[in-house]
Write a structure and sequence with these properties.
296 residues, elongated, 9 strands, Rossmann fold, alpha/beta, 6-phosphogluconate dehydrogenase C-terminal fold, 2 domains, homodimer, six-stranded parallel sheet
């Protein structure tokens, strides 16, 4: 499919792409640009074929697919090297979690280069190549942003399909709106709940952590996700985030009123409604129906 | 340990107590009072020894342990029967998720009866005896409220220990405060997030559910929990809930400001801080460290 793939940034996602691409024989050669010595020493052990670039210079000429998989705030660092050295036939793609910001960023890239944007909906609370997982994208959505270069878009689609992803084409605006609610807001809420528990623990001098199995623990897992990645997402999807937070706060105020006034039928209606959503999520295969009694 | 145990209300928790008690041979006889015909027909299949009471009358004389495991709002229904018929040597216990309210309720119970309060920190998003699980309490906390009748308190402790629980003694005030943050607020937040996603879906006419794997799905599981049980908890722990919601909203407003003004160091500090809590939760064995890449 490709001759020379370059993965820039080889954390959880980058290293999972690398492992899956090697397994599926998607390229003849695999290049990695990764600044962390620790990460490089882990990646070296994956496969002897992997070649490490220490600089992004003339050696870029041979690359036919570049995958940006650093945190989004680092993408611009690579643009001048890409502009100078990348072959115009090659394709750039990325794994960033927001897209409207990247459309603006693209202006800084040479017009002769093609950047087909993608967003694999997969990940975990852990970071780094230590957790790299060849099956990370299997049966997961990968969102591709509709591109004017149809041929190159198709090639990026085939790339993700060969890693096991299911493809959906979206425009940047829809993408950022949808994921502000299905992913970005839930992460913010998880972080906020952990902060609230910490504040409460300090204020009341009680050990809460010990009793976190009743709900808090599930949020703590989500709130252990990479801080640079999530800072970038919250900042870059600012407008949608603020709209989502406002809607969440309005609903929380209503809930507070329901509790305060013991409004029985209103609260029961809401609690039952949640089950409808749960059923839809299971029927759309976004989760399994098997009950969770705690992970062991 | 006992001769005749009676479980009033045999949903997920009651049926799990029943299964575990039979397995551990905690009593000679096992009685169940359960109003749902559907539930009774499921429970019948557990074991031939189980006896069903259709009324709580003179047949209560023989019972030496009563376990209230209906939603808390139903407890008072049984008090007049218990007052009239229960032997003064026997013990009442319960599995309610809030305790200060039950201390008030106890006044309606005859002074000659002993109610040692307990709260096993275990459960799931599913309801009913279909999911009854003999291992539900294994290695989980069970909170026992300090009782004036030390002998009977010890007996209830032994009961839960024999089902596999680890025991902690608390006063009702501490109990309700701690669980308002570790359990009740997380559930409310999960319900509120699902409500917000529903509102957003309606408002923007976008299919969110399809893309819920990025965070929303984990909340939807928690928000599928039993509505009667959670209505009771929210209402009965009202004062602590409102304090917790207020603290949560204050923190969320701060987060919104951090995002809106792109306050980098402030937000990074919070996101890193969450990882500290996560590590404590794992080191205190409230969760496992194995990364979650989605349930399959």
């Amino acid at each position: 499919m490709f001759n020379n793939i370059l993965i820039i940034g080889c954390g959880l996602i980058g290293s999972s792409i690398l492992k899956a691409s090697i397994q599926k024989k998607i390229s003849k050669n695999f290049f990695v640009f990764e600044k962390s010595k620790k990460y490089r020493s882990i990646i070296k052990k994956f496969n002897k074929k992997i070649k490490f670039l220490t600089r992004l210079d003339k050696n870029l000429k041979q690359i036919d697919l570049v995958i940006l998989s650093t945190p989004m705030s680092e993408y611009p660092k690579f643009f001048s090297s890409l502009n100078k050295n990348l072959n115009h036939n090659s394709i750039i793609t990325d794994v960033g979690s927001t897209k409207k910001n990247l459309i603006s960023l693209r202006k800084k890239l040479s017009k002769n280069l093609d950047w087909v944007m993608s967003h694999p909906i997969s990940g975990s609370e852990v970071s780094g190549p230590k957790y790299g997982n060849a099956n990370l994208f299997k049966n997961k959505w990968c969102i591709i942003i509709k591109d004017k270069n149809v041929l190159k878009q198709k090639k990026v689609e085939r790339f993700w399909k060969s890693l096991g992803s299911k493809i959906i084409i979206m425009n940047p605006d829809d993408h950022d709106k949808i994921f502000s609610v299905t992913s970005h807001l839930p992460h913010l809420i998880a972080y906020n709940l952990i902060k609230t528990a910490q504040d409460f623990q300090k204020k009341k001098n009680k050990n809460l952590i010990k009793f976190s199995a009743g709900g808090l623990r599930d949020f703590s897992r989500i709130a252990a996700s990479n801080e640079i990645m999530w800072r970038d997402i919250f900042f870059e999807n600012k407008t949608n985030m603020i709209e989502a937070i406002n809607l969440f706060m309005k609903n929380l105020k209503d809930f507070k009123k329901n509790i305060s006034k013991k409004e029985n039928s209103k609260i029961i209606k809401k609690l039952i409604n949640s089950k409808v959503v749960r059923k839809q999520i299971i029927s759309q295969k976004q989760d399994i129906s098997k009950p969770d009694f705690g992970r062991e």
